[in-house]
Design brief:
30% helix; four-stranded antiparallel β-sheet; alpha+beta; 5 helices
Length: 149
């Protein structure tokens, strides 16, 4: 839809960053940039850009979320490759993008929505997942989605 593809899978619903990494590497290896987004129950957001099978820009709102005893540093948002994210949209203001990434106290879905709008991505990608598609809860009619098993 609108030149973008959104991949959803029951496997991705497990919220395993390694599974997401595997999908994103494979999708981007064909030559198209791939954004891998993980919204873990609205507690934290992982937003990574892959090109040619490699992560070239990475954001994690709470990298220590899965650590047993995370340090204070691990609980701070981490951002690498801001310029690569900004390059997704020629009209994107890198300063506004950085502020959005690093502003605390966002709900993950709200942060995702703000990033989508700044980067010029389609609104239908916000908060979508296999569970929502299966229940017909999406902004784009289900007939526009390519459903794969």
């Amino acid at each position: 839809v609108d030149g973008w593809s959104v991949f959803c899978s029951d496997l991705l619903e497990q919220m395993d960053p390694q599974v997401l990494d595997h999908y994103a590497k494979g999708a981007s290896a064909a030559g198209s940039p791939t954004l891998a987004v993980l919204n873990a129950d609205d507690d934290f957001l992982s937003f990574d850009l892959y090109e040619k099978g490699e992560a070239v820009a990475v954001f994690n709102s709470c990298p220590g979320a899965y650590a047993e005893a995370p340090s204070e540093e691990e609980m701070k948002p981490q951002l690498r490759g801001l310029d690569r994210f900004a390059a997704l949209n020629a009209g994107c203001n890198p300063g506004a993008l950085e502020t959005t990434f690093l502003t605390p106290s966002y709900m993950a879905v709200d942060l995702h929505a703000d990033l989508v709008r700044l980067l010029g991505l389609p609104d239908y990608s916000i908060g979508i997942g296999a569970r929502y598609l299966a229940r017909g809860e999406c902004l784009v009619p289900l007939t526009d989605w390519a459903l794969l098993d």
